[in-house]
Amino acid sequence: MNSKSLQSSKEWSGDTVNKKERAEKEFRADFPRAILHVDGDAFFVACEVACNPSLKGKPVVTGEERRIASAMSYEAKALGVGRGMPVHEIRKLFPEVIIIPSHYRLYEIFSQRMYRILRRYTESVEWYSIDECFADITGLDHELGMSYEEIAITIQDTLHAELGISFSMGLSVTKVLAKVASKWKKPNGRTIIPLNSIPDYLQKTPLGKVWGIGPQTTRYLQQFGIATAQDFVDKGEAWLSERCAKPVLEIWHELCGRSLHDVHPGKHSKHKSLSSTETFMPPTSDPTFLFSELSRHVELVTRSARQETLAATRVSFFLKTRDFRYRRVECVMPTPTALPHIILDAIRKSFGSVYDPSMMYRATGVTLFGLVPISHVSQDLFSTQTETATDSSKKLYSTIDEILNRFGSKTLYLCSSLTAFGNRKAGRKKERNFHLPILGKVS
Ligand SMILES: [Mg+2]
Fold this sequence. Notes:
Layout: H1 3-30, E1 35-40, H2 43-51, E2 60-62, E3 71-72, H3 74-79, H4 87-93, E4 98-100, H5 104-119, E5 125-129, E6 132-136, H6 140-144, H7 148-163, E7 167-172, H8 175-184, E8 190-193, H9 198-202, H10 215-222, H11 229-234, H12 237-243, H13 246-255, E9 266-267, E10 273-284, H14 287-307, E11 310-321, E12 326-337, H15 340-354, E13 361-373, H16 387-407, H17 418-426
Parallel strand pairs: 2-4, 5-9, 7-8
Antiparallel strand pairs: 1-6, 1-7, 2-3, 5-6, 10-13, 11-12, 11-13
Helix pairs in contact: 2-5, 5-7, 14-15, 14-17
């Protein structure tokens, strides 16, 4: 290579590098923050289809138990079935529609799985509703060596592969814009709105479709000729601040691309408590059975707490008599915990104070209160548990949780819950056995 060509080669490569750097900078300027919104497509029905693939591609409606349509597949929607439509009307108008009861626990399990998959990529995941999450992935492009779009594609593909249901994704610079983006194309859509493309989308978004703008505000603003989200943005801050409340103004900033609403890790509906209660038949005074029922409730609520990385500072339990009277006790935990054997020890100590052998009982229940993030829990210096014992219990339960997640909630349970699980098989109301796809590839 002669010196001239070497020179031109250097110029060429230098130019390429500059171009690449410029492109990267521009991309980052377009994403001062990167917020992802993930939204399950026809989520309830999709969960049903994932468990029963024979429903795939068919018009399916859930809500048989309430006698109104609570959710519907896209095929049912295309026929004209709407949410809230009475079941008898659907049967009359659309006899081909398959109407099934809702299984909210099943949807909750899928929801938790969605949340856990997102948390593999970032800690900053807000569980907004049963089928929606926000994730702040700002800076993750650098960390993973991928563009934000590639990260969104990877997450979308992982959710689909592991849950067997599709999600629509919106990626933008604020939460409100990420919501606009995820709605843009459904099902299985992926819409990216960088800072410089915001007007292109807002011009085509009716104001009433913007997250946080209710029908009343929409009607009010329509009087001033505001029809689209872009009309709203164009009115400007001064005009709006004279006529609208602060939350509406905050939405205006978010639509302009200025992020005011942070992604709050954890569940959006901040839990004040976690409960499990159930009535059984026939009423009984058998203390072994009653304690076993409490043990089963403790296993259920502590598992939910662990899944949400929460620990309880207080626990209450009750026995309900045949004549509907409650006997209730609250226990304060020496250290916040989500480990069932520790809570059961406390309940065992107080059981005698609520149990009366002359009474017949028809229900039991357990509630965890004062929930704090597990990460905030430090070892209690005066605890009788040694640090090693607590650590090994945590390890044990993380293994147990993995087994339960993969093989179902009845795979493993404490000996103290045995009678309750046995009774469940013998005479209690029959519970549907879900055939959940495991966390891993599903066909
Ligand atoms: Mg949805």
